[in-house]
Amino acid sequence: MSTTILLLTLIFPLVGTLINGFWGKHLSKKVSGTIATVAIAASFVTSCLFFAYIQDAEPVKIVLFEWMKFNYFSIDFGFYFDQLAALWLLFITGIGTLIHLYSTSYMSHDEHFSKFFTYLNFFVFFMLILVTGSNLAMMFIGWEGVGLCSYLLIGFWYKNQDYNNAAKKAFIMNRIGDLGFLIGIFVTGYLFHTLDFVALKEQSYLAPTLGIATMAFFIAATGKSAQLPLYTWLPDAMAGPTPVSALIHAATMVTAGIFMITRLNFLFDLTPDVQHIIAIIGAVTSLVAATIALVQNDIKKVLAYSTVSQLGLMFLALGLGAYEVAVFHVITHAFFKACLFLGSGSVIHAIGGEQDMRHMGGLKKHMKITYATFFISTLAISGFPPLSGFFSKDEILLTAFHHNIVLWVVASLASILTAFYMFRLLFLTFSNKFRGTKEQEDHLHESPSAMTMPLIILAVLAAVGGLISIPGNSWLNEFLKPVIKNNAASHPHVLGTTEYMLMGLAVVGALVGLMVAYFKYIKNKQVPVNDNNVSGLQKLFANKYYLDEIYQSLIVHPLNFFGSFFKNQIDGLINGIVLSFGRIPAELSYQGKKAQNGNIGLYLFAFVIGVCGLLYYLFMCY
C-alpha cells in the first residue's frame, strides 16, 4: 500500500489544525467547522483503505529519518501500521468525524469557535501519532501531545476558574503517570538496546529488571486511562465542552493505556506478577467507580464514573492476558459511550445548560431521537443481549471466571451496578414529569440534525458492534492474531454448560439492576435528595470515598506547607545572606562619604596620616 496514503491519514488533521489555527478568525463558523470535520473524515477514508488492505497483508513500516543515535543505540522517526493500529485508526477517525460534525452545531454560539476546532484537530493528530508510532519514543510524543491538548480542551472555557483548576488537575495527574512511562522507556532501552516495537518483539526475554519496566508502563497507563489511584482527574474533566468529553472518554485518550499494554503484550506476558496487579487494580477500580456512579446527580458525572468503571473491566482483561477481549470492549465501549455523551449533550443543549438530573424528567416526548438512541446505548452498556456490550462484557466475565473467581465476583457486581445506575440516569432524565422551570419546559426541543445524525449512527453501531466477536466465532481474535503473541484464536474456549450458565447469570444481573431502578424511579417516582441530606454509605459514595480530601491532606497540603516554608523562610534567609555581601561595602562607603564634609583640618590630618603611612611602607619594606 502507498506510504503516501498512510501518511496522509496523519497529515489531514494537522492541516485542519494549521488552517483553523492561523486563519480561523477570518473564516466563517460554517467554513471553519467544515474544514475541521472534512480533515478528520479524510483520515477516516484513508483508514478504511488501510483496513481493507491489512486483512491479508503484512504490516507497513515507514521510517522518515534517523532521529537519534548513540553508539549502538538509535531511534527512528517512523510509523508502524499493523492490525492493532488499523482498529484504533478506524474508531478514532470514524467516531472523531461524528463528534466534529456534532460540534459544528453544539458549539455554534461559542465566540472561540475556530480555536475549539483547532484544538480538536490537534488532539486527533497526536492520538494518531500515539497509535502509529513505530517505537516507544514516537508513542511518547503522541502520549504527551494528547495530554497537552486535553489540558487545552478541558479548560477551554478558561474564564471559569473551576474549569481551569480541572484542566490543571488533569495535566498534573497525567504527569505522574508520564514519569512512569519515561522510566519504562529507559529500562527497556537499557535491557534490549532498542525501543522499536518489531525489534523488541523479536528479542524479548525475561530479564531481572523487566518487571520494573512493565510496572512503570502500567503506572503510566493508570494515569492516562484513569485507574486507581490516578482516576480522580477524569470526572473533573467534565468541565470541558460535551463533545470533548465524548472524544476523550470514548475513542481516544483514555484508551491510550489499553493500547500501550496491548502493543507491549509480549513484555507483559513475561511478568505475570505485574499482570496480576493489573487485574486486581482493574477489578477494584471497576467496582469503586460503579459505586460512586450510583449516587451522582450530574448527568455527565454519571457517565464519567461509568467510563472509569468500564476501563477497569478492560484492565481486568489485560491483567488476565486476554488482550483481544480488552480491545473488543474498547471498541464496543467507544460506540455506546460516545452515543451516551453526545446524547447527554443533546439534553443539556435542550434545557439551557442544566446538568442536574433532579431538574430534568419527562424529556422522552420532547426528544424522541435522543431518547431512542440513549435507550439503545443504555441497554448496550448494561450488557443486554444481543447488543454489543453484552458480548464484550460477557467475554471479560467469562475470562475472569476461568482465572480467578474472586475477580469474577467483583467484576459481576460492577456489571450489575452498571445496569442500575445507567437506568437510573435514563429514568430520571427522560421519564415521569419534567422537574425543571416553566421557562425551560417551554423551550424543550429536539436537537438539530447535525447533532441527532451522529447519535443515530452511534446507536446502530452500539447495537450491532458486538458481531465482530461472538462467542466461539470471533473475527476480531483472528484479525489480531499477528499482533498478540498468546492470542485466544490459537486456543479458543468451548461454549459449554458453564459458559451458558454464566451468560445467563450476567443477563439476570443486568435485569435485576434494571428492575430495581424501575421500581425506585418509575414506580415510586423517587427523586434523589439534596446533597446535604445524604448519609451513611450514600454519603461515602457521593463524596467519592473522600479520595480528593485524602490527596489534599496527604499530598497537596504538605506540599503547600513546604512550599510556603521554603518561600518565606529559606528563600528569605538566602536572600539575606546574598544581600549582606552588598550591604557591607555600601555601609562602608556610606561612612566614608561622611568624611567628605569640607573640613580642611580633617583633610590635612588625613593627608599627614597617609604620608606617614607611605613613608613607613617605603622604609620598612625596602
Question: How would you portray this structure in words?
Answer:
The protein is mainly α and 622 residues long. Helices cover 72% and strands 4% of the residues. The chain is built from 25 helices and 4 strands. α15 (323-350) crosses α17 (388-403). It starts with a helix and ends with a helix. The mean pLDDT is 91.
Strand content: under 5%
User: Can you summarize the main beta sheet?
Assistant: 2 strands, antiparallel
Report how far apart the termini are: 94 Å
Main-sheet strand order equals: 1-2
Number of helices: 25
Shape: globular
- Low-confidence segments: none
Sheet/helix structural class: mainly alpha
Number of E strands: 4
SSE pattern: HHEEHHHHHHHHHHHHHHHHHHEEHHHHH
**Gyration radius over CA:** 30 Å
Topology:
Layout lengths: L2 H21 L5 H26 L5 E11 L2 E9 L1 H24 L6 H20 L3 H19 L6 H32 L4 H7 L6 H15 L8 H4 L5 H10 L4 H8 L1 H4 L3 H22 L5 H21 L3 H28 L17 H15 L5 H16 L1 H26 L7 H5 L6 H16 L4 E2 L2 E2 H5 L17 H27 L12 H7 L4 H48 L5 H22 L1
Antiparallel strand pairs: 1-2, 3-4
Helix pairs in contact: 1-2, 1-4, 2-3, 2-4, 3-4, 3-10, 3-15, 3-20, 4-5, 5-6, 6-8, 8-11, 10-15, 11-15, 13-14, 13-18, 14-15, 14-17, 14-18, 15-16, 15-17, 15-20, 16-18, 16-20, 17-18, 17-22, 18-22
Brief overview:
With 622 residues, the protein is mainly α. The protein has helices at 3-23, 29-54, 83-106, 113-132, 136-154, 161-192, 197-203, 210-224, 233-236, 242-251, 256-263, 265-268, 272-293, 299-319, 323-350, 368-382, 388-403, 405-430, 438-442, 449-464, 475-479, 497-523, 536-542, 547-594, 600-621; strands spanning 60-70, 73-81, 469-470, 473-474.
